[in-house]
Amino acid sequence: MDRRTFLAAATGTTASVTTPFVGAPPQVGTSDVIRLRSGLDTLMAVDRSRGGHEGLERAALAGAAEALAKQKQGATQRIRLRLFSVAADYTATAAWSAIDARQLDRASDLLGHALRMAGMAQDSVAELQVWNLYAILANHQEQYAEAVDAAYAAQGTTIARRSPFFGSLAHARTAVGHATLGDRQAALRSLGHAQEALSKADTTEPIPSWIAFYGPGELMGLTSIVRDRIGDFPQAEAASHQAMAMIPNEFRRNRALATTRLALAQLHQGDVDQACATATAVFSLMSGHPIPGRMRLLLGDFYRDLITLGPDASISREWGDRYRSEWSRL
Questions:
Q1: Which of 141, 230, 127, 145 lies closest to 187 in space, CA to CA?
Q2: In sequence order, which residues have a C-beta less than 8 Å from that of residue 55 and are 6 or more positions away?
Q3: What are the tens digits of pLDDT across the range 44-76?
């Protein structure tokens, strides 16, 4: 995907220059929006490597507060809408950090605020971002039907209907929801829609930094989840291998998640030794940073399945020792 600055397409890159009147209130303009967007891009770069954590959430909320403060400083209506949009993006980023850190109640409150600001900004991209996160959150809260409903809401946003790229993510999220509910045909149908839409996406289309993670590699990662949940374990393993081959190295957290999914797919086929070796690689991938709560939960799922399938195997005991050691370190 062309990673040109999203704001350049939304606002242009040149602010008009005017001479302020003496005593006039400070003017808020495009340069302020660009600066705030740049700060958001910086936070998303941290998320790609480390994942969600308290410091990232605090920084995102500080960015949202600054955007809302600027919004009150006499800006034009056009700039006010853009600042609401920035505030929505920062708040959604804080919510995402809370989800990744498994602070689910806090994430729910933040998403409510983000959705309100996205509506006030009349920003369908921000609305899709929030509904996508609502779908993820509902899945973690084991409210699986609500996760599907949120994914359908994402599909219904203007940007998802207009842009195949954004629409692909919404369809992929819907596929995960259907798979979790055990609806095989609906899951595969939504997955097919996601793949078709992504194949039609304009690769020169400017995108915001929050969705830069999405592309062929991430879709393969989501495909692995869908296939694993409907019992297609060999296909899940193949999709995970494809995801690992395509997810850029800078997305270290996502690569670690894809590695864990690969280990699960191998384990569910009875290949205990290979699965343990694959899962151990996650600790190396995340070396130097605490493992986010969402990934810790997934590793916990792996360990639970491991001791179910091979409770007496020496490799299972060895991996369990490593898992407990890493857990106590975090």
A1: 230
A2: none
A3: 888 887 777 888 899 999 999 999 989 888 678
Q: Does domain 215-330 have CATH number 1.20.950.20?
A: no
Contacts 24+ apart (CB under 8 A), 242-249: 242/217, 243/217, 243/218, 244/217, 245/217, 246/215, 246/216, 246/217, 246/220, 247/217, 247/218, 247/221, 248/217
The pTM assigned to this predicted structure is: 0.86
At residue 102, what are phi and psi to the nearest 5 degrees? 65, 35
Q: What is the mean pLDDT of residues 177-200?
A: 97
